Amino acid sequence: MRIINLIEDTAGREGCLYEHGLSFFVETKHHKLLVDTGATDAFLSNAQTLGIDLRQIDTVILSHGHYDHAGGILGFSKINPNAKIYMQRTAVNDYYHKSEKMEKYIGIDKRIQYLPQIVFVDGDMAIDEELFLFSGVSERKMWPAGNLDLKCKTEHGFVQDRMDHEQYLVISQDGKEILLSGCAHNGILNILERYRELYGTDPDAVLSGFHMMRKSGYTDEDRAVIAATAQELKKTDTKFYTGHCTGREPFEMMHRIMGEQLLFVHSGEEILTKTL
Fold first, then answer.
1. Which residues pair with 205 in a beta bridge?
2. What's the rounded Cα separation, in Å, for the pair 148 and 191?
3. pTM, whole model, 2 decimals?
4. How much is the CA Rg of the chain, to the nearest whole Å?
C-alpha cells in the first residue's frame, strides 16, 4: 500500500503546492484512489510533480461536503471521467460558516452532483473487500467547538450542521485496517467509537485532520479538550497521521503527550507502509 498526501495546508516536498485543503492518493492491491481533492486544482499539479497518473484513478471518496475537500473534483473529472466518486447524499446541501461577524458559503460546487460518475451513499456502504465507508457518528464526546459556527441553510433558515454528510473510509489489506477521515468534524474519539462498533477493535492507522485549529487563539477549555483527546488516543495501539485543520499548536500539544504515535503530514509527503 502507498499513501501520498497530494495537498495539505503546509509546505512539504519541494516543488509541491500547498493550500487550505486536503487530498490523499492511495494505492492498494486492487485500487488507485483519491480521498478528497483539495480546495482547487492545485492537487492536479502536485500529482504531476510526484509522478502520479490521475487517469489511472478508479475511485474517489469525498469525506464531506465542504469546498476545501471537493474543490478539485470538477478539474479531476475532465481528465478522468470514469472514476466513481462516492459522497454522502447530504454532501450537496448548503453549508455555511456563519457567525455574528461573517456568513460564508463553504459547501461544494453544485455542478458536482450532476457528474455521471457520482455515486450517492446513504449511510454505510461496502464498496468491495478492500474498501468500506461508514457514517452514522452520533456521539458528541469532545465534539469540536469550531462546529458551532457551521450551519446548514434550509428553507426555514440556518440550522446547526449535524455533520451527517461526513463519511469515513476503511481500507483493509494484509490483515491491517487503515481509517481515513477528512476533518473529523464529528470528533476523532466519536469516530473511533463508531469504528469499534463495526470492527470490535482499533484501526492500525488513522489519517485525519482533527478540526482543532483556531484563528483567534486557544482558551483554557480548548487546551483541556486537546490534552484530554491526546490522552485518550495514547491509550490505543493506533498510529495517527494528521494535518490540515488540526493546527500547529494543537498538534504540538498532542505530540508532547503522544510522542511518535502522532505525526504531522505535509504537502507532497509519502507515508511508507512499513510505518503503518
1. 178, 239
2. 18
3. 0.97
4. 17
- pLDDT tens for 222-269 read 999 999 999 999 999 999 999 999 999 999 999 999 999 999 999 999
User: Three-class SS string for the chain?
Assistant: CEEEEEECCCCCCCCCCCCCCCEEEEECCCCEEEECCCCCCHHHHHHHHCCCCHHHCCEEECCCCCHHHHCCHHHHHHHCCCCEEEEEHHHHCEEEEECCCCEEECCCCHHHHHCCCEEEECCCEECCCCEEEECCCCCCCCCCHHHHHEEEEECCEEEECCCCCCCEEEEEECCEEEEECCCCCCCHHHHHHHHHHHHCCCCCEEECCCCCCCCCCCCHHHHHHHHHHHHHHHCCCCEEEECCCCCHHHHHHHHHHHHHHEEECCCCCEECHHHC
Mean pLDDT of 73-96: 98
Distance from C-alpha of 35 to C-alpha of 38, rounded to nearest angstrom: 9
Residue 50 has pLDDT above 70, yes or no: yes
Residue with cell 471537493: 70
pLDDT digits (tens, 9 = 90+) for 138-183: 998 988 888 999 999 999 999 999 999 999 999 999 999 999 999 9
- How far is 112 from 77, CA to CA, in rounded Å? 9
54 to 135, 154, 162: CA distances (angstroms):
27, 36, 33
Q: How far is CA 237 from CA 130, 183, 202, 210, 271, in A?
A: 22, 21, 7, 18, 18
What nine digits make up the cell of 6? 497530494
* pLDDT band at residue 276 under the 50/70/90 scheme: low
